[in-house]
Amino acid sequence: MQIEIAAKRLAELGHATRLEIFRYLVKGGKTGVPVGEIQSALGVPGSTLSHHITRLVNVGLVVQRREGRTLYCVPQYTELDALVAFLQDECCINETTDST
Amino acid sequence: MQIEIAAKRLAELGHATRLEIFRYLVKGGKTGVPVGEIQSALGVPGSTLSHHITRLVNVGLVVQRREGRTLYCVPQYTELDALVAFLQDECCINETTDST
DNA sequence: AAGTTATTTCTAGTATTATCGAAATAAGAA
DNA sequence: TTCTTATTTCGATAATACTAGAAATAACTT
Lengths: 100, 100
What we know:
Chain A has about 100 residues and is an alpha+beta fold. Chain A has helices at about 5-15, 15-30, 35-40, 45-60, 75-90, and strands at about 35, 60-65, 70-75.
């Protein structure tokens, strides 16, 4: 992953409300969680919530799927895994290159 | 780790220049890297660099140690590990609770 | 069509962040 | 003590982000 993309995704997760949203989605599983459920669970005003979700969508960490009136938010596990992998590969001690 | 702290650290890493700084420090090893070396390696103006380093220090991801005129920046591996662990534990699919 | 529910877009005020030159500080060297 | 090196703090400007009420849109129900 390029550093620019990693930085963008980290920045979006670097906001308490958005991090809570993402965590809530992850707990909700692969089918996704309706926006309204996030709203009542976290107690965030609709317009504010929509703004934060849009940001998560913009960096590819969340995808939305509509079913009738309900919009489901689906966390993109693969993207988060890649981000975690980036941190581990690029920003943690690489023991294999280290001489004991 | 509390979500507030995690969010703060993610936010600080969520800036391309700061992420590059941190990555450079990690590559530099446990003894740390002088500010001046980061400056010439990344080509960032001194005042701007100082600002970014201060932010990393403020969230505990970097510690500074002075040796004469030279200030060494030391990446805090433990803190990054904790952050990565937070993401994996709280924001990734927990396979163990999943019925296979 | 009119009403209801679910969610977004608009708008605007406030706050935080990024940037970097210039001046200031810290510390060793002459 | 003066000079040089290393780095920070100050100050000012521009840009971006946060928040949330109100209005708009999307889609189902009656």
